[in-house]
Amino acid sequence: MKISNRELSYLLIIKEANDKGCGATIFGVAKSLGVSTASAYEEINHLMRKGLVERRSDGIYVTEKGIREMNSLIRAHRIIETLLVRAGIDPDRACELAKMFDEALPEEVVEKLYEYLGKPDKCPHNKEIPSTQ
Length: 133
Known about the structure:
There is one protein chain. This protein folds into two domains: 5-62, Arc Repressor Mutant, subunit A (Orthogonal Bundle); 72-116, Diphtheria Toxin Repressor, domain 2, CATH 1.10.60. The protein has six helices and two strands; from the N terminus they run H-H-H-E-E-H-H-H. 60% of the residues lie in helices and 6% in strands. The longest helix has 23 residues, at 64-86. It has a two-stranded antiparallel ribbon. The chain starts with a helix and ends in a 17-residue tail after the last helix.
């Protein structure tokens, strides 16, 4: 399964709350993303149906499956970004361009690019490239 950049933005906000030791709230997610509470509610339900988040008594949490999917898209983005920078594109522009097709690129292609680039461990913005595990 591939997730979209929109789904990733929700998962990142939820995981940020989880990393602080608590569940995310629909209101908090909506506020962080600048969307209506109703929109956040709908998207969180969508993520729950896909098994990417779960609702517990103390809030919303990203599942293991959700973390794997997040890391997969982040990995693709950072590998594409690295390729574009090495081709001579400004790092910030490369980031914008990578968002245009990072979710559409098959994992097989992402892995070939990773190998071609010499298996970098960081992107041009010095952020870690997640592993495939």
